[in-house]
Amino acid sequence: MSKKRSLCFVDDDPNELARFKQAVGREFVVGAGTTLAKALEDLRTQGRRRVDLYVLDMYFPNEGTSTPEELSKLGKAWDAFCTAEDALKNVLTELGQSFAGGRALAKQIASRSSFAKTPFVFFTRKGNLLDAIEAYEHTGALSVIKKPDPRQPVDEAQRTRAYDDAMINNRDALIRSFESAIHRASLWYRYKAQIPGFISGVASSALVWLVTKWLP
Fold it and tell me: pTM for the complete prediction?
């Protein structure tokens, strides 16, 4: 037990809390609750105060809890969304447009021989959560940036103009996203935590060398 890492999981659905514990409870000490305080208290009842990782529900209700009726309504909406997403994936596959093409481009970037690899981001309108996770964890993408969408469905005749307008209207946000990615990819940002220690170590070594060389 003492060697297990501790997770603090917060979610508004009690069923989600239960299934999470069942899934990873053997590998981790899990404190779970519908609020942060409850999750931490659950962890403390298991003899843990230190949290190694917080696992947070992204779409967490402002009030902190959801009624069974609200969860049922959300579940039905999610099922409808998944059905529509599957239909989109089928069309993309039919047209030969899938994440396999993006992965192939990423491999081309990775194969370029250079001392410092140029970072890359994916820029997508149709990307889904699973592909975004793969992009971060398995292709080396620095970020997945959403292409601007029109705020509402448009007729076929107006589609190109609507996408043009959406791109222009969101240009400032896009610029910030790209500049942020470039900043996060910079050598200083990636190694800023190690650089002061490295400099300190070099300075200390140099001082010791000078002392041993010049002192009798």
Answer: 0.68
